[in-house]
Amino acid sequence: MSSDFDEFEMIERYFAPLAEGEPGAFGLTDDAAALAIDPGKHAVVTMDAIVAGVHFPVDENPQTIARRLVRVNLSDLAAKGAAPRTYTLAMALPEATTSAWIAGFAQGLAEEQDKFGITLLGGDTTRSRGELMLSLTMIGEISDKSMILRSGANIGDGVYVSGTIGDAMLGLALIEEKINTSDEVADAYLVDRYRTPNPRVEVGLGLLGLASAAADVSDGLVADLNHICRASRVSAEIELDRVPVSAAAQLLVTDNQPLRLSLFSGGDDYELVFTAPDNVSEQLQVLAAQCGVGLTRIGRIIDPDVQPSAVSVLDSNGKQLEAGDGGYKHFHRRGSR
Amino acid sequence: MSSDFDEFEMIERYFAPLAEGEPGAFGLTDDAAALAIDPGKHAVVTMDAIVAGVHFPVDENPQTIARRLVRVNLSDLAAKGAAPRTYTLAMALPEATTSAWIAGFAQGLAEEQDKFGITLLGGDTTRSRGELMLSLTMIGEISDKSMILRSGANIGDGVYVSGTIGDAMLGLALIEEKINTSDEVADAYLVDRYRTPNPRVEVGLGLLGLASAAADVSDGLVADLNHICRASRVSAEIELDRVPVSAAAQLLVTDNQPLRLSLFSGGDDYELVFTAPDNVSEQLQVLAAQCGVGLTRIGRIIDPDVQPSAVSVLDSNGKQLEAGDGGYKHFHRRGSR
């Protein structure tokens, strides 16, 4: 760690203020934190780590890194219908880390705390001999037994996604200069969709009691729907033309069918993919309007004895494009769940 | 990550079995885990990260790394009097990581789970571009409001430590060949004390209701007692000759007074330093006998208005050796809490 700051001073100055709302954090001065969960509630726990050069560029600004770290974890809670509450944070900081970087990172965390109503509970700081690595454990709350699992999908349920699919993959391709458009506004939109995930916390809370199963789209639409199918022991059929694509993405994929198909396997959208019985479709429309987020029916859950391929993608003629457990696996970009 | 394994296969094969005892882990197949805390109990949460080349040698064997990772976290729970229950784990794995390494690491975790009665709850796996980094969030349980804090020390309390102090520092110095003895048994003992921390979980549980404040000795005896003093707004006085030193350490420090003094600032002992009123001294003796661990009174808590230096160390003539908040700070070896 750079010699321009001392660890205790750093915690006291930049991180202790982030823990003020959680009395069990003891101002980050103790060995551990106390966490009281209200009777009748469960804690919901998720953990995601991000590494410089793997999940974000090594020169990414610290606020953006803080946002990403918090939001990828919030997205997991959203998929379970849990209300975010508190988090612990481990940082492995390269030697060259400056006070200015720490200040920016803490400022980013403060903004996320305000936006999502969460508070820092504790953590650990250590040196890294290599790149920056950050690990966050997010704890949410949920009423007893109501958590939305991956394993609850039933044959006949509709398959839905929130928002639009594939933007983040195109945003990353733009950053890496693998593709380009002549539309600066569209480019900026897609890059922002990659850099700043928008976890669907409000949608997730609204899906409690409506969705039979859910996951967040972090590995890619087909991969994450596949996780639901495996856990639920069912298959799914989705229709290419129904998968919602943003106007910005349309500019890129309209005349490029391979790129259009690749949107289904692009990760990092942090939208929700979920299943729900048809008798709640009106309630889903109300929820979509309340949250200002599209909830689009893209297919249905089918009998695995009839169609053993976990996820089938149908073109506009109802013809199966590519299918099977491993069908889209080769697009997998990274090893994170 | 090495191409000789797939992330999902790795989780299913090596890590899902570690989660079998915790139904809310859903076999590690969901986005998040559910954790029910019994009414009348609090969760106690701690997080520690360890990095290759910082906290252990880069070529350390995976079982030893697993042990260290679990135990440094258990030591934090022990200092609070919490009963260990479950943990989440984030791994950033270098490209060269092999299946054999993963198998050894998971085996190490399995042994710790058996020994300490804990179960894997969830986690994340990602690539590292540099060294191996591991981060663990440990969750324990405790009855309402009984947690031992750093902030509870009162003037007149005795200051105690468990076990012996300074072994780990000497063990590390032996590994780094900065010192040597001619006694192989003693050397092996000290090196093992560094490599395999022995968290004082049973002692911590027994200290509930007896200790007024506690911390684990991870940064060093003086530094960690200093944390208690700062949180409790008191000072402390410890007597050099009362600090328990192992027979193996005696061989090295008897004729080396500077080395002997440095034991007080050596980290990684993972013993407990705690304070307790004199009227529980008999109960502490019973606890020591029950646990088979020495609990030694090394000093007392004093009025900060009389002695503003947080921690004073007295020699056999009652003369103050070195004192003050920053007195031993220059010995600090690493930036982890």
Q: Which SSEs are present, and which pair or pack?
A:
The structure is a homodimer of 337-residue chains.
Chain A: H1 7-15, E1 33-35, E2 41-51, H2 62-80, E3 83-94, H3 99-116, E4 119-128, E5 133-143, E6 158-162, H4 167-175, H5 184-195, H6 201-207, E7 213-216, H7 221-232, E8 235-239, H8 247-253, H9 257-262, E9 272-276, H10 281-291, E10 295-302, E11 311-314, E12 320-323
Structure description:
With 337 residues, chain A is α+β, with helices and mostly antiparallel strands. The first copy, chain A, folds into two domains: 137 residues, PurM-like, N-terminal domain (60s Ribosomal Protein L30, Chain: A); 178 residues, Phosphoribosyl-aminoimidazole Synthetase, Chain A, domain 2 (Alpha-Beta Complex), CATH 3.90.650.10. Chain A is 33% helix and 24% strand. Chain A contains ten helices and twelve strands. In chain A, the strands form two sheets. In chain A, strands 7-9-6-10-8-11-12 form a seven-stranded mixed sheet. In chain A, strand 11 and strand 12 form a beta hairpin. The longest helix of chain A is centred in the N-terminal third of the chain and has 19 residues. The C terminus of chain A is likely disordered. The interface between A and B is large, with 71 and 71 residues. Strand 1 of chain A pairs antiparallel with strand 2 of chain B, so a sheet runs across the interface.
